[in-house]
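Deliverable D5.2: sample structural annotation.
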Amino acid sequence: MAAAEYYSGACMEFVPKHLLAPTMLQRAQTEQIGKTTDGIEIAQGRIMWLPSVEDLPERAVRRAHGKGAVEDGIYNHPVVVVSRPLDDEQVVHFHLITSLHGKKLDQLYPKTNEFHTSRRSWYLPISPSPDHPDAHSKKAKKRFPTLSLTDGATLRWDSYVNIRHIYKIDWTLLTPYANLNTPNVSHFRLEWESTVRMIAKGKILTLYEPGVQVPVPEIQKARTEPAYTSTDPALHVYLDLMVWIFGRQVVRTIDVQARNQQDLRM
């Protein structure tokens, strides 16, 4: 069983404790698998747990967008749902959540050259992780937002969403994420604003579009009316994307990528 920066507590019962590094054992004890869930709770922004490759059917994880092999290192990690498409509702598309092996983003990619700058653009921090190292101005913070969880929840470790890669899996193969340090939180989910910003940033970076989603009544009710009132052009890009994702009757036919491209410069 390969060690990963996030480890599933459910898998650890089969590993003798004396064989585990102290840090790995601590993570296993504090970041356990949550309770079972049903489909009505699975929607954009939900954080789930991707089990080890040994606990999944062969080729359970595939790329939802782009080309390339599925990396071995994605397993035993939290993931965030970016799409549960209406035309394939048993499947979810997701981004990987990573702790970067305990490093900060600017420690992993500290240089100002094109390669390191590009790699840093792949990641968005989740609060209370440090802000993105390139978010050094008000405008840059819109390009590299720090994402937040609902209800003041936190993940076990400082973590980042890798928006560069989009994978897909049968959602029933995922397990709910849970953090024993926050026992009162049963559902881990990005705030709606953070979810929209994450998807919008991913669209600019990868051209990936989620499509129309499986209806989730409780979530849609909370999101019917946009929370934004600002005239900031950047926020209108997110609003346009929000309307488009949920397939509402009145859809503004705006190309999100082209509109305000000069302002966003993502």
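Annotation notes: Strands lie at 47-50, 62-65, 77-83, 91-98, 123-126, 159-170, 175-176. The longest strand covers residues 159-170.
The annotation will be released with the project's public dataset once the embargo ends.
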